[in-house]
Amino acid sequence: MENMEEMDVMIYETRKMLNTIIEEKQNLLDEEVIATSQKLDIFLNKYNNLLKKKILK
Q1: Whether residue 1 has pLDDT greater than 90
Q2: What number of other Cβ atoms are within 10 A of residue 7's Cβ?
């Protein structure tokens, strides 16, 4: 399982990648934009779950 620092880096890098792809494609419905956005959603959900576990300890 990833720790919060690793997840933070993954979120940052994926968000940066998503912004670059959006600038290149100029279409929010492009398959690559959607796939990268979904990947970011997964990382954000994992980060949120880690945060919840940390708070509940």
Answers
A1: no
A2: 19
Q: Residue 23 CB: number of other CB atoms within 10 A?
A: 8
Please state the pTM of the whole predicted model.
0.89
3-state SS, residue 57:
coil
DSSP of 1-32: ---HHHHHHHHHHHHHHHHHHHHHH--TT-HH
43-50 long-range contacts, CB within 8 A, separation 24+? 43/7, 43/10, 43/11, 43/14, 44/11, 46/2, 46/7, 47/4, 47/7, 47/8, 47/11, 50/1, 50/2, 50/3, 50/4, 50/7
